[in-house]
Amino acid sequence: MDINFSLLIPEFIVVGFAFLVLIISLLVPEIQKKGLGYVSIFGLLFTLISLYLMMNVQDSLLQGMYIVDPFATFIKMLIVLSSIMVLLLGTEYVYRLINEYYSEFCFLVLFATLGMMALVSAGDFITLYVALELMTITFIVLVGFWTRNTKSSEAAIKYILLSALSSAVLLYGLTLIYGVTGTTLINDVVGTIGKSFDNSILLVGLVFLISGFGFKVSAVPFHMWTPDVYEGAPTPVTALLSVASKGAALAVFFRVFLKGLAGISTLWIPILITITVLTIMLGNFVAIPQKNIKRLLAFSGVAQAGYILLGLVAFTTFGVASSLFYLALYVFSNLGAFGVVIAFSQAGGGDQISDYNGLWKRSPLLAAVMLICLLSLAGIPPLVGFVGKFHLFRAVMEQGYVWLVFVALGMSMVSVYYYLLVAKAMYLKNPKTNDAVKVPIGMQITLLATMVITIFLGLYQTPLINLTISVAETFF
Questions:
Q1: Which of 199, 338, 404, 419 sits at 20 to 30 Å (Cα–Cα) from 90?
Q2: Across the chain, what does the average pLDDT equal?
Q3: Omega of the bond prior to 382 within 30 degrees of 0, cis?
């Protein structure tokens, strides 16, 4: 059996640089290990270029077990871009607070990236599960990385217990689907599901699958781990977990249901609509009373996952394209907000919203980036978040779910309230101290880039929309 190894070049680059970082860390003195972050960033940039060159490739390996198509490549690019931004934003943070484990942090981020890339390209249930565990186990270590912080250790314990439970649930769901269809290949499931159709077993399998994937994307009622893990984990890890991990899980969620289970959409769409509505409503309402900025962003992330799932509910090319567009803008807006949290915490600030009082006087850049990113997540025009929600609502409305659009629109208005609570603290309240917040130049450039992109894509989004439409055609 011939294997086209050129399809795995991005993964090989990530693995190669991960082991290069590990080897260098054993050879250089402690004071020079800070450069390992930039070695990792260089490797990820090289990976990003290779993915861009493979954008139009449509092929598979090992008889369909590993898929390389525009959809997988697009999501991989978002994952790699997220990892680059997290390393740029979190290098100083991790090096100062967790200095003795900095090289391990870079190594683990690269392997988490590898796990997410493999998950996106998984073409069968076995590859899917192995990639999912590689991603999850790496994140468990990263969540508990700050060993001197009891909240970090507590978050890691909660995450490992609930991850084990969700993985078992997902594995059982995959087993039931395999039992009905007799195949582990995702693309073959749709062709065999009608020949051995057993409605009851399929329905149970679907419930288990949605439960397992729901945990990974923080969908209600499987979101219970999110606020505690987001609060306890080191902030750069929280940022990566909130964007890249969620993006990878959503990608495989879409692939399994749009490719493998498309023929029984009448069974899973009603379940998914219920979960989507609960996710949007609970995420927005529970964010209102939060006093901790990381917990507020955690429940905001729960609500954002619900919005992205609207594209799957729509079950059309434009619906999937709208979800991909929203996921792309979510990378910049959410990482911009978390970048401000990282910079503020690194400068000695706290995680309470009250700690951000008068931030505009202490750091106009941090306050501006946080405001723009939060308003984008709320869907305020002319920022890119407004465009993303507009397309999602349009895709759902075209399928006749008008009531669902009104629910989502109403919850967007609710989100404006709690996002403006942060803005009120930053701009209308007096700071506890007038000391300027010092932000490293590299972090300033990265934060400024997220803000500029958030504004620019809101004004000129046509190329990205066209790209996501062409990518979404992979499924239809």
A1: 419
A2: 89
A3: yes
Q: Are 122 and 152 in contact (CB under 8 A)?
A: no
**Structure tokens belonging to residue 249:** 């899980």
**Which pTM value belongs to this model?**
0.94
Q: Is 377 within 8 Å of 337 (Cβ atoms)?
A: yes
Residue-range domain boundaries for the chain: 266-272+289-476
One-letter amino acid of 224? M
- What is the Cα–Cα distance from 177 to 202, expressed in whole angstroms? 6
Look up residue 319 and give its two tokens.
Answer: 């619906």
319: closest CA among 305, 308, 306?
Answer: 308
Q: Look at residue 59 and give its three-state secondary structure.
A: strand
pLDDT lower than 70: segments of the chain: 1-2, 99-100, 191, 194-198
Residue 402 half-sphere exposure toward CB, CA atoms < 13 A:
1
Distances in Å between the Cα of 195 and the Cα atoms of 181, 182, 188, 198 are 8, 10, 12, 9
Residue 328 in 3-state DSSP? Answer: helix
Share of the chain above pLDDT 70, in %: 97
* C-alpha–C-alpha distance, residues 161 and 156, integer Å: 9
